[in-house]
C-alpha cells in the first residue's frame, strides 16, 4: 500500500488516473445500495417473527391487567421488570412508551420547553436562550430535535473515552443556558465509542450553572454487541445519585433493534422525580401505551437471558458485515494516509475519516456510483462538519455480498476524491 | 311518579325520609361499581381477539413494505385507504399514529404552541394569550390539554344541534386569541349530541379573527352507533374547502373503541397543508408508527364492511346497557321534576341533569354507596360546572346486571340529594 501523502506530483497523477479508472469500472457495474441508516436487515427481523403471532388468541392478561383495555400509563409492570436491569434502574423508575426512544427524547425536550422539567424555574421557552452540548461526531436525529426547536448546539469533541470532559465541565459550569448534553454512551452513533467509567463519573459529578441540566442518555445499543465481550458501562443513574444530582439523567432505550425496528417498545427511565414529572405530562396525551405489544414482547423475550440469546443471533448476522467492511478498508486503504476508521465493538455504525475537505466529495462520488451514504456533515449540528472529513457507514441492511460491493464503492470513491484533492493542493 | 317540585313541605319531608331509607338499603348491598370512564367491556374486547394472533408468523408485508422495519412515517397506505372514508377524506390526507387519538390532539396543540401551525405567523407560545372554545358539557381530556398548557377555555353552550353557533361566530370573529374549538361532532361526549348540517356548515364558513384558527374535530364515535340507524354527519373537511378555509379542520379518530382500547390505531386527517405540516413535525420524533399493528388491523377489519359488522356486534353488547339505564330513569325519575337525561343514539355516555346545586352531592352519595361516577364538574373547563347540575354516566364497562344495580344506585342518590336540596330551600 502506498502512502499518497508521500507521493511525488507525478506519482500522484498516475495514481489518480488509476483511481479514476477503478471508480469508472465500479460505476459500470451499476450497483444500487443503501448504507445511509442503521436499519436492521430482513434476516435480523426474521429472528423475532414469533412476535407476529403473539401473544396468541387467548392470551391478554399480564397478572390481572387486561392488556387490551385502557390503563397502565407507565407500562406493564412485568415488562418493566424485565427491561429495567438492562438500563440500570429499578422497574418503578421505567416508563414504557411507543415504538421508539426517539419520541421519548423529542417529547422530553418538548415538555421541557413547554413546562420546564421538575427542577426548572420556568418553561424553557421563556428563557432567552437554550443550548445543548453535542459531542461530535454524533447522531443526526438528536441534532434535528434541537434544530426544530431553535436550541443552540455547541459541538464538543468526542475522544475514545467519550466527550472531552474538560471542555464539557468548563462549559456547563459557566453557562446557565446549557440545559443538556446528548450522549450515546455505549457503541456510540457513529463512532462506536464506549464511555469510560471516568467520563460517566465526571458527567454525574460536574457542577452545572443550570440547576435543571439533564444528560440525555440515549442508551440505544445497551445490548448490541459485535464481539463476544458484553461490554458494560458505568451506571450513570447511580453515579448521579451518589454525587447529589439524582435528577440529572434522562435515560432512553428501546427494543427497536432487539425485536422489530418498526414495532418495538420504547423506554424512558430516570429518578423518581423525573418519572413522576414525565407521567404527569403524558397523562394528558395518552391512557397508556400499547400493552398488547408489551405483552407480546414479554412472551417473546421472557427474561434477560432471552434478550442475550436473541442479541447473540443478531451479532452472528451483523458482525461479518462489519468485518467485511473493515477488512476491505484494511486491505485497500491501510497506510494510504488518506483515511482512518473506527473498529466498533457494538452498535450499528463505522465512522470513516478521510482527508479534510473530502467527505462531501466521497459521498457525492459514491452516490453517482449507485451507493447511498449518510450525507456528509450529518454527524455534526446543522450538517456542518467544519473539516468535512467524517463519513458514517451503516452496513447492517445490505446482505454480506452487497456489503462487499459497497466496501469497494466506498474505497474507490475515497481513493478518487482524496487523490484529486491532493493533486489540487 | 310524584313531582317533587310540587310537594308540600310535609310531603317532601316524608319523601326525603323514604329516599334516605332506600339509599341506606342500597348502601347495605355493598356494591362496588365503576361508571367513570368510557371503557369497553371485556366482552367487547373479545370481539377482536383474533388480533392477538395476527398478522401471523409469516405475514409482515403490506404491498412491498416490510412492516417490521423502520419507515412509512404516514402509516401503511393500505390501512389509510381503509380508514379514510370513515373520516371523509382521501387516504393521502390521513396519518396513522399511536394507539390513541388523544396523543394526536395533545401533540397538535403542543406543536402549535412550539412552532405554530401552517397558517400561523409565529409559535402560539409567543402570543400574549391563547384561547379555545369549549362546548359544554364536553370531554374532560380536551380541557386537561388546555389546562396543561395555560390555554384559556371559553365555555359555549351545547344545543341539540351542536355548539350554539351564534355565540361561536360572535366570539371567533372578534377575538384573535381564539385559536381553536373542541368538537365531538357525532354522539358527543357526554351528551350524545349529533351536530346538524347547519352547524357543520357554519363552523366551516364563519370568519375568524385568527387566520390560523382550527376546529379540533374529535370524531371519536364515527361508527359507534347504538341504534340500527347509522347516522352520518356533514363532511367538515369538504365544507371548509368549499367555504375557502381548507386548513381549518384537524380531524381525529381511532380504532380504540373498534378493536382494542389499549392497542388500536390513532388517526389524524386534514388538508394537504395540514398533513404536510404535521408530518414535518413528527419526522423529528419518530421513524413511523407501529406498522405491524397497522397490518394486524388491516387483516382483521379487511374493509369498511368489516368495520360495520364489528360495530354491529359492539352495539349488541352496548345498547342493552344504555336501555337498562334509561328504562330505570324513566321508571323511577320520570316526572319527578328533579332530573332529565339524554337518549344517545351512539357513543359511550349518557348525560344526567339534576337540580341545580345537586350534581356534586349525587356523585358523593353514589361514591359512599360504592358507585364511582365521573367527578361532577369534569364536563366543564377547570371542573367548574357553574350550575352543578351535570353528571356523566358511562355504562359500557359493567355487565348488564351491574348496570342495573348502578342505575338503582344513581336513582337513590339523585332522589336523596335532590329531596334534601329542596327541603333546605
How would you describe what is shown here?
The structure is a homodimer of 425-residue chains. Chain A is 40% helix and 14% strand. With 425 residues, the first copy, chain A, is of the alpha/beta class. In chain A, helix 8 links the parallel strand 9 and strand 10. In chain A, the strands form four sheets. An eight-stranded mixed sheet of chain A has the order 4-11-10-9-8-5-6-7, sandwiched between helices. The interface between A and B is large, with 60 and 59 residues.
What's the layout of helices and strands?
Two copies of one chain form a homodimer.
Chain A: H1 9-28, E1 33-34, H2 42-46, E2 61-62, E3 65-66, H3 77-83, E4 94-96, H4 101-115, E5 131-136, H5 140-148, E6 152-159, E7 162-163, H6 165-174, E8 178-183, H7 197-205, E9 214-218, H8 236-242, E10 249-254, E11 266-269, H9 272-282, H10 291-301, H11 304-333, E12 339-341, E13 350-354, H12 359-368, E14 371-372, E15 390-393, H13 400-424
Helix pairs in contact in A: 1-13, 4-5, 7-8, 11-13, 12-13
**Mean pLDDT across all residues of chain A, rounded?**
97
The largest sheet of chain A, given as strand count, sense and whether it forms a barrel, is:
8 strands, mixed
Structural class of chain A: alpha/beta
Rg of chain A (CA only): 23 Å
Strand content of chain A: 5-15%
Count of helix runs of chain A: 13
Helices and strands of chain A, in order, run as: HEHEEHEHEHEEHEHEHEEHHHEEHEEH
Low-confidence stretches of chain A: none
Strand order of the largest sheet of chain A: 4-11-10-9-8-5-6-7
Can you tell me the overall shape of chain A?
Answer: globular
> What is the terminal-to-terminal distance of chain A?
22 Å
Oligomer: homodimer
Helicity level of chain A: 25-40%
- Total DSSP E strands of chain A: 15
Largest interface: A-B, 60 and 59 residues
Amino acid at each position: 500500500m502506498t502512502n499518497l501523502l508521500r507521493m511525488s506530483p507525478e506519482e500522484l497523477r498516475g495514481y489518480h488516473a488509476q483511481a479514476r479508472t477503478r471508480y469508472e469500472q465500479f460505476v459500470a457495474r451499476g450497483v444500487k445500495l443503501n448504507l445511509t441508516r442503521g436499519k436492521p436487515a430482513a434476516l435480523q427481523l426474521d429472528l423475532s417473527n414469533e412476535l407476529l403471532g403473539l401473544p396468541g388468541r387467548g392470551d391478554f392478561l399480564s397478572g390481572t391487567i387486561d392488556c387490551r383495555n385502557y390503563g397502565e400509563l407507565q407500562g406493564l409492570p412485568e415488562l418493566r421488570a424485565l427491561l429495567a436491569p438492562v438500563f440500570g434502574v429499578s422497574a418503578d423508575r421505567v416508563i414504557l412508551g411507543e415504538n421508539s426512544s426517539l419520541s421519548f427524547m423529542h417529547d422530553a425536550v418538548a415538555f421541557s420547553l413547554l413546562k420546564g422539567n421538575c427542577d426548572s424555574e420556568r418553561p424553557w421557552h421563556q428563557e432567552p436562550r437554550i443550548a445543548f452540548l453535542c459531542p461530535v461526531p454524533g447522531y443526526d436525529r438528536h441534532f434535528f430535535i434541537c434544530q426544530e426547536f431553535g436550541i443552540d448546539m455547541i459541538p464538543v469533541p468526542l475522544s475514545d473515552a467519550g466527550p472531552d470532559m474538560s471542555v464539557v465541565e468548563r462549559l456547563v459550569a459557566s453557562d446557565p443556558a446549557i440545559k443538556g448534553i446528548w450522549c450515546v454512551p455505549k457503541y456510540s452513533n457513529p463512532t462506536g465509542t464506549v464511555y469510560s467509567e471516568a467520563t460517566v463519573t465526571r458527567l454525574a459529578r460536574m457542577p452545572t450553572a443550570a440547576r435543571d441540566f439533564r444528560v440525555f442518555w440515549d442508551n440505544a445499543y445497551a445490548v448490541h454487541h459485535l464481539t463476544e465481550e458484553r461490554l458494560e458501562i458505568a451506571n450513570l443513574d447511580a453515579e448521579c445519585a451518589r454525587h447529589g444530582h439524582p435528577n440529572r439523567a434522562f435515560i432512553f432505550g428501546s427494543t427497536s433493534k432487539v425485536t422489530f425496528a418498526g414495532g418495538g417498545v420504547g423506554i424512558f427511565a430516570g429518578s423518581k422525580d423525573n418519572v413522576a414529572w414525565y407521567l404527569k405530562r403524558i397523562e394528558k396525551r395518552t391512557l397508556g401505551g400499547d400493552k398488547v405489544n408489551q405483552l407480546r414482547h414479554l412472551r417473546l423475550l421472557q427474561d434477560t437471558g432471552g434478550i442475550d440469546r436473541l442479541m447473540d443471533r443478531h451479532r452472528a448476522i451483523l458482525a461479518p458485515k462489519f468485518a467485511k467492511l473493515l477488512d476491505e478498508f484494511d486491505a485497500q486503504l491501510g497506510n494510504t494516509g488518506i483515511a482512518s476508521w473506527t473498529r466498533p465493538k457494538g452498535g450499528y455504525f463505522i465512522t470513516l475519516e478521510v482527508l479534510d475537505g473530502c467527505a462531501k466529495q466521497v459521498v457525492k462520488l459514491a452516490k453517482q456510483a449507485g451507493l447511498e451514504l449518510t450525507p456528509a456533515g450529518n454527524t455534526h449540528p446543522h450538517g456542518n462538519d467544519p473539516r468535512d472529513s467524517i463519513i458514517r457507514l451503516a452496513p447492517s441492511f445490505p446482505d454480506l455480498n452487497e456489503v462487499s460491493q459497497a466496501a469497494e464503492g466506498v474505497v474507490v470513491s475515497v481513493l478518487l476524491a482524496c487523490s484529486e484533492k491532493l493533486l489540487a493542493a
